[in-house]
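Q: Could you write out the predicted structure for this multi-component system? I'm mainly interested in how the pieces pack against one another.
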Amino acid sequence: MFDLDRWMEIYHVLRSNKLRTFLTAFGVFWGIFMLVIMLGSGNGLQNGITRNFGDMATNSVFFWTESTTIPYKGFTRGRTFDYDNSDITALSEGIPEIKYLAPRTNVGGFNGSSSVIRNLKSGQFPIFGDYPVFNKIDPVTITSGRFLNDFDLSEKRKVIVIGQRVVDILFEPGENPINQYIRINGVYFKVIGVFRSKRNGEAANQDNQRIHMPFTTLQRTFNLGNSVGFFNITSKDGIPVSVVEQKVIEALKKRHFVAPEDDRAIGHFNLEEEFRKMEGLFNGIRWLVWIVGTGTLLAGIIGVSNIMLVVVKERTREIGIQRALGATPVKVITQVITEAVVLTTFSGYFGLVTGVGLLEGISYLLDHSGVNTEMFLHPGVNFNVAVTALAILIIAGAAAGLIPARKAVSVKPIDALRFEL
Amino acid sequence: MISIRNIHKSYLNGQNSLHVLKGIDLDVAAGDMISVMGASGSGKSTLLNILGILDTYDQGEYILGGVKIKRLNERKAAQLRNRMLGFVFQSFNLISFKNAMENVAMPLYYQHVKRKKRNLIALEYLDKMGIREWAHHLPNELSGGQKQRVAIARALITQPKVILADEPTGALDSVTSLEVMDQLHEINKSGITMIIVTHEHDIAARTRKTIRITDGLITDIVEN
């Protein structure tokens, strides 16, 4: 029920000392404002960093070869070896936990690049031989044409899918690269698709200058025999990728005569583990933000409690009059608590709105200024956090009013009436 | 209406206990009008506060309108004050941010009477006190006599059984004092019991009975 007298009293109390009310409200405002800004920035940081993973399957593991470090079965240490096509079938048939297996090989070895020429324009780009399934493990956005398919592989077609940056360098602006031919190390390939990276910043630039061709085409065209440079493997849903990792390492050791205790011969990298470390870091940041943020908020709330104590003290006589005229303790207590709740909720809501507004503003500017930040993207808090914060505020406001309210009714009415400030 | 037997009251002041009321017996009939006189520190205000259920007593018995007043919880006490008693104070005790009408209507607010209705009743009582045209003025825009009339209207609005007045003319000049006393007389005539604490003889002389308190005991009851 709306009680005009109650609200008039609250209005009077808050208005009677405007500076004091403002400063108290500012404490709460600042607390919730900082909480929102810190949470939002934490989210921005996390969004920025996870964007660098693109849409890459986090349950993936990579394998390459190193040289052996232990002599085994008549081989000396320091031997180098290559994976080959027979490993592909052996792994995909021997290990049921594998979901996707994408072999890859590239021209000029790891990080190598080749000279690519079209008409009068040329550039240096890394060339990869891939399976179609690659686009399921580390997806790119196809902007025109298509990605590689199984027929490209089985027929060893001389087709390529190229990144946006390759298009920018080799083609005139506005020119359609699809079905055009470009020359890689003297061999002509037809462009069947263009893609753009899902990552951000420098990582995106690197992605966008890649050229993908069928795995089989690359092996044959560039005389790589049946060697495989690299395996990219994901585990089936619900199976930790470390299980697959161990099984693959074991199988590869056996197939390539590597000593079982030689841990350095099979190069491998577990993305899931890295990802988990990162998640741990972000969780840590979030905890820290909540602790610091609620601490700041608590300081504001204590300020409210403190001011309500002063208000109750100042109004002792007035409360005494009210009680003499028949105000019950419950009436007085709810009045004081409502005042505290109103003060915290209003100032807190204002802080919430200001914080969210600022974050949205920053987000908008980041999106529209064209600044490509690797570390920061779409800062903001989700709706649930905002509602939680508001709920905390209301409860905290009530708690802040509780002690002063009890104090207001703890004196006898006659002592309250006689009170002189 | 009021019956007290052997009331004792002490105040604890650190280690010392100050025995203020030392066994008061008093009966006030319904519709009576009495004054209480005494030197300062004699205990007359303490007695009034106990009668008004604003303070507690240590020993004895107090019956107000058939209700035994002893160890009431604050909620019950507030309700009894609201329904049975009206207060008039020396310093008026009006709420500064409420206008005259809202001040008068306050006791009805605690009875959950609707705002419109209680303001209407308040205007009626202000009219009776002859200050209706000041209804929308804040207390600091009123003279002392007007303030006290507002306070009396406020005391009357719940139609209490007893009005307790603590030096009601103490802050007023002599002409206004007489006017206020006339109004209290009028109210008494309508059947409301009235107890006035005062130290002015001419005020006391206008009541039916004067009770003199000395050192916490009733020493004299004079019919005027």
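A: Regarding packing and overall arrangement: The beta strands of chain B are 2-13, 16-28, 33-37, 59-64, 67-68, 85-88, 162-166, 193-197, 209-214, 217-223.
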